[in-house]
Amino acid sequence: MFMFKHKKRSFWKKGAAFCLLTSMLLVSACSSGQGDSGQPQYPTRQIEGIVPFGAGGGTDLVARAIATVAEKQLGQSINITNKPGATGTVGTKYVFDKEADGHSLLFAAENPTVYGVLQLSERSFEEFYPVHIMGRGLAAITVNESSKYKTMTDLMNDVKANPADIKMGTTGPGGLSYMVTAMISQSENVEFNMVPFDGEGPIVTALLGNHIDVSIVSLSKAIENAKGGKVRVLAVVNDAKVEELPDVPAITDELPAMSKYMPWGPFYGVWVKKEAPDYVKQTLEKTFAEASKDADYQALLKNLAIIPMGISGEEAEKFWREQQSISAWLLQDAGAAKVSPETLNIPKKQ
Fold it and tell me: Which of 195, 210, 305, 327 is placed for a possible disulfide with 220 were both Cys, Cβ 3.0 to 4.6 Å?
């Protein structure tokens, strides 16, 4: 009798211990970040958003606007930090060196597409997954309001008559103004006197002071100064007119040979390391797609003259690779590339 009771008591003790262990495992599973779908919870802490350029620029403004909306949906804040330097390579490498867990995001423009041919960095978009490309910016051929150039025809006639004499303000190889100047030079077989500046701000200052003859600046900056009666926009670097400047022709209307490069322009996107788990990529894609519908964010894009895109994944990769093809081979043809695009397996757009 004693032995029976002992065995029975032992049985109940083992059963209680099993239930306790099972409960502990369930609690542990829940606390480890498992969501309702069985996937690990994400995000679990504040997300660091890196803008590899200075504060106040187009990339910075777009990043902060969409991050403000996206963080509300994610349930964690997105702390935007500027890490400028070396054409964006400093910030890009910073994100690359972080864990691929989705808690470090890169808010970048188009610059990494040419890091390879310019030998600026070993890191480029190849190492990142395009979560969301927000939009594509436009550029404008701009002169001082008092300039003798009233149209693109006036400018091109003078450039052809005076090779390497017309002063074109640029930001150096890979920059917006340099790339568009290379397009014009290649398509029209002309040569400008390239005058380098540290950024768009100094270029506009030089343009307003008549220290240079012409330059290519972002459309939003051109519109801002055109409305103030300070500059004249000769053409928009696009394959169609834009509603913001209805009387200004598209560059392809003035220079048809430029069609092979269009559409082209600066673009803005958010990226995560390529090795990030699929559930992280999917969560980010869905979040930023929803955030892009925000009315205030869309108003900002319009104010900056940015064409909304809202693409991700394979579609986004196809887009940036096409842009890379145009830019990389332009630099090669202009003699500015340090490594041939062919060596980097970058095909030439036909």
Answer: 305
Q: Residue 122 and residue 98: Cα distance in Å, rounded? A: 16
pLDDT digit string, tens, across residues 200-243? 888 999 999 999 999 999 998 899 899 999 999 999 999 999 98
**Whole-number Cα distances in Å, 303 to 58, 199, 205, 220, 316:** 11, 21, 22, 7, 23
The dotted CATH code for 139-261 is 3.40.190.10
Domain 47-137+266-344 has CATH 3.40.190.150: yes
Phi–psi pair at 14, nearest 5 degrees? -65, -40
CA torsion angle 222 227 232 234 (round to 10) = 60
Beta bridge partners of 82: 51
d(CA 66, CA 58): 12
Domains 47-137+266-344 and 139-261 share a fold: yes
